[in-house]
Amino acid sequence: MLSIVVLISGGGSNLRALLEATADGAFPARIVAVGADTEAPGLDHAEQFGVPSFTVFPSGFPNRGDWGDELLAQIQQWSPDLVVCAGFMRILPPRVVAALSPNLINTHPALLPLFPGAHAVRDALAAGARETGVTVHIVDEGVDTGPTLVQRTVPVLPGDTEHVLQERIKTIERDLLVQTVLDIATGRTDLAAIHQSNRSATTP
Q1: What does the radius of gyration of the chain's CA atoms come to, in whole angstroms?
Q2: Does the annotation count 108 as an active-site position?
Q3: Is the pTM of this model over 0.85?
Q4: Which CATH superfamily is domain 1-100 in?
Q5: Which residues are annotated binding-site positions for (6R)-10-formyltetrahydrofolate?
Q6: Percent of the chain residues past pLDDT 70, beyond the cut
Q7: At what residues does the UniProt record annotate the site feature described as Raises pKa of active site His (predicted)?
Q8: Check: CATH 3.40.50.170 for 107-204?
């Protein structure tokens, strides 16, 4: 049984999808805790499902590194097999990434390497893209630069606003995240092997 800590910053729609999936006794993964960096509304989902939660506010620490160390300590006390950044809007410090990688994944609302960063949907519209999508990837020390696990395209339709396109992406994103976690839990996706292959490919 794969144990998971999920990190969020907002409403937690991806978290909700994972909670619903893992509530099924046949699903080979369980969420053991949910963490946040803000008073995220999505923490209500954890409470509804009886999952413990914790919040580590960056404002309570003198620097990003100290905040990251406390976040890591909170995560590690649950000894998760996998950490999922599901709408977690803060870049993790290098020490956190080093301690958790490659069992640290993120969802991003674009077809990386296109449109990295916090405004991917807005950037796709501004660029006149005809399609965008969702990427699930291993987190590294960069901004949305880690090895890609899976992608799915989403068309950009005439008249799309940022909100409309984002909501259409979210529908795909939730399903793709649940399937990715299932694939990791069943061994169909080997994070260590993908991580090592990527390192080998980028090492001179």
Answers
A1: 16
A2: yes
A3: yes
A4: Formyl transferase, N-terminal domain (3.40.50.170)
A5: 64, 89-92, 106
A6: 98
A7: 144
A8: yes
